[in-house]
Fold:
Amino acid sequence: MTGRQKFSTFYLDDLLFGIEVEKIQEVLNYQEITPVPLAPPLVLGLINLRGQIITALDFRQRLGFGKRAAGSCSINIVVRNNEDVVSLLVDKIGDVVEVGEETFEPPPEMLDAKSRALIRGVHKLDGGLMHVLDADQAVTFSP
Structure:
C-alpha cells in the first residue's frame, strides 16, 4: 500500500472492517430480499435496486460469523467488482476513514486460508483495528 487511502467502514459484531471507497457504489438500509432456490447459504437472495437486480451476500456467513441476532436488520453495502455489482449485508455502517501506510500491518500468519484470502491486513487506528478487505475476493463466491 502506498500513500494515503480512504476506506468505507462497517461492523460485524464489534469488529471493524474497511473496503476502499472507490469500490463502494452506495450504502442502503434494509432492502427486501427475494430468496433464490438452491442457492448456496452465502447467497441470501436478490434485491431490486432501481431496476437493477443485485445478488445479496450474507457477509456474516462469508466470514464465518454466527447468525445475525433475531429482529436485527442488516445494512447493504453495494460493491462494484469489475462490471458486477453485489450487495454485502453487514451489521452496521461506520465512517469513512483515511489512513496511511505507516499504520498498516499484513494479516497474521495464524489466520485460516479462507480469512487470509479475504483480509489483506489491518490498520492500527486510535480506537482499535480496521480489517482491510480485498473487495474483489469479498464479492466472489462459488456454490
In short: The chain has a mean pLDDT of 87. DSSP finds three helices and eleven strands in the chain. The longest strand covers residues 4-12.
